[in-house]
Batch of 3 targets.
Target 1
Amino acid sequence: MINKTILFLLLIVTVAGCGSKSQLTENKFYLPPATTYNSVAIDSVKLFYREAGDKSKPTIVLLHGYPSSSHSYRNLIPMLATRYHVIATDNLGSGYSTHLDPSKTKYTFDLLADYTQKLIDTLQIKNYVMYMQDFGAPVGYRMMMQDPKRIDALIVQNANTYLDGLTPQRQAFFRTAQTDTSQEKHDFLYSLTSKDAIINKQYLFDLDSTNLNIQSPDAWTHDLAFLAFKNDREIQVQLFQDYNTNLIRYPEWQKMLKENQPKTLIVWGKKDLKFNYKGAEAYLRDLPKAELHLLDAGHFAAEEKTREIAQYILEFLDKNNIK
């Protein structure tokens, strides 16, 4: 009787153990691949990028906004990398990429786009899905203008290319940032790169009690580490001064979108007060087949609604046979 009891217990343990092993084996396929942290030397600079996922899969390139870096996508990357190859870049002068002295190098969006394109080419990425947020739009559209057919799909997240998305006051801000060369104007733009401005006029600017505790302080803490010195802040001032060149190019970018009709997903934080949701809806004039989702989020929607955005992206790419 004792021997039978022992055998019965051993059988239960063995079956349970097999079940656990089987479950672990199955679950491992749902774990995201590790993100790696890399840099390449191009010309005289180092360009940093995060990478994850199977290189044999379609590539998604994530282009960040102001005042951030690829760090913006630290949570989104592993969600997308379960099915795609993901690259998130740091602009020249941002994050871990080289910060060239702005007294010797003039920072423009042409310069950022040129180096980002060189990075993509160096990595031998021919075609890819482009995700753009904020500054990512003027960088991305400059790249796309060179060869629209390299872009398999667009993912637009609070990335403006229509005046509809900018209030008259906001348009005037960008215009005068370019045309007013006074020291007073420079000092005002420089003040926008301060700790208080980054936290309260960027990250917390369009949040309320419903989403305030969703915004991780890691975001602005990381950004401020790369805005610690005068030269770092001057880089961003120069980009503010150059931003009106983007508004001037909006019509040619719109024309390019209308002519090429890229597969487009628009996921836009509706609470964004800087690039308002009318800019999202304006895309439909030129891209009537685009998929639009207005989210209960602000300008940094990928920080607030990471899972929702990842779900929209994965579903959109799947039904468009980009897999």
Target 2
Amino acid sequence: MIDLRQMRYFVAVAETLHFGRAAERLHVSQPPLSRQIAALERELGATLFERHSRQVRLTPAGQRFLEDARSVLAAFDEACRSARLVEQGELGELHVGFMMHAALSSVPPLTREFVSRHPHVRLHLREVLPSALVDAVLKGELDAGIGFLPVARKGIERRPVHREPLCLALPSAHALAGDDGPVAATALAGEALIAVPADIVPTLRQATDRWFADAGVTPTVRLEVQLQHSIVSLVAESLGVALVPASLRRLGLPGVVFRELADAPQVEQWLFWRTLNRNAALHALLDVVARQD
């Protein structure tokens, strides 16, 4: 059976056309080199070299085998290099899901830094409903997810990646739209509120409810909507006001004004991943996150 060592020996002789110089290049003595070439020829059933007392030449079969051997060795060397790079997190693929409004906050800078540091890792980004992120990570459909603090689940690890205040989104024709200064919860008593469902996005809903409760106000929830983009669109239609992450200001949606909140509650986005995930590119992402802390 032909092995890679014999092919490397052959290429060295073919490139030098001298057994002695080839042996020096390979750091072996000449007799073992000659035996390996002879064994290669027997295995192939072809004469690769014309040997004369002072000269070595490639036969037509040797010329063709040299071209193919170089290709095989280059492919093998590249395969070895790729395996090392994948193990180091410098090559491969990484699948990351994120809740949609993270595209306005944590995802762009994190992506920019990761791509800059690991340009040969193919990064797949997917917008996913917050309620589906953890399950997708546990099933291995995603290497990591970015969303609000997930409920503690066995086999899931997590770390914070972004923190921002909530702000008030209200129709541009609303009486509070033209005022200055932070808006207090008492100013929203009786206002129709558009909020996220407590069972779908508990972190955000709890922050909203707590802010009102601390001021002794019971909010009037008119609509419950899961997606932040949809909530802001409904505000633009004068269907109510909403407490949303401040990064949604970047939407620039006509018909909506954003105001700061007095004692604004803070919400965090978290990166979470499956504990047993062995994808080295994931650990490269975690390293990028750690550098941003």
Target 3
Amino acid sequence: MHRAFPHSLIDMPTGSPAGIAALLDRATAAAGIGVWACDLASDTLTWSAGVYDLFGLARGSAISRQETVLLYDEPSRVEMERLRADAVRYGRGFTLDARIVRADGTPRWMRLTTDVVMDAGRAVALYGTKQDVTDERARWDALRRLADNDVVTGLAGRTAFQHRFFEAGASDDLGALILIDLDDFKLVNDRFGHAAGDACLRTIGERLSACFPTATTIARIGGDEFAVVMPGSSGSEQVRDAVDRALERCALPTTWRSRSFRVGASAGIAFAGPLRPDPEALFAEADAALYAAKRAGRGRARLAGPADVGRRIG
């Protein structure tokens, strides 16, 4: 059975315990918070109005725990059940942000807090709060996207690149790293201004995205420097052809406010090899290859080591 906390103030003296409880129930529900309890012997649930509202169910309606947990999405349900089992076994509470799908199909994020009632060293009940944190999660997600993405190009930023690059290395899904640096980009800023420079960077970002559709990550990691992480499934010829196309595309004119200007690009390529790669070493190899390309006359790519990859772009 499912029981609801009282939520009617009718005929209740303002200062009575019942009246105060009902007032608290309404106030917490209005704030998107509810309190709950579960008797472990019978799995009987007790909910306040706020919990019913959070799940999109009629207040006071009967519902079993088995039906309730089906409203969690699978990853959240698995994690919640694991933490709940530990709480019962060890008598310790927990907090979990869980994604649920309301009865009307609307997804929400819920912060579940749980504590344990013990009797003679044995867990007999669980209780806590459930709070709607959907808006909070949306704000944090927006801030994380802002922090992860380069504001000029919309590509991944340096921090996101580092995280994804090392993650790819740890998961054995790192095929190659390509570092690309624009040639004579400073002249665009000096002659036309930083607004023109930003327009150029955005255009280069779009061109790189088109040339590396299978890339794990494309990032702007410096003022005019970009990085492309290719997955382990990438073949060496596929990577080299993509780099050649990228250098050709980067050398095409950029139009800004009826003005046209060009920047070239140079690239350094390092392949991960068959063994689990060392991301730091791979970055150093690609960086050395990039500067070798710059010294060789720019507008070209170099493979880590002595080989010259790709033709010079005029």
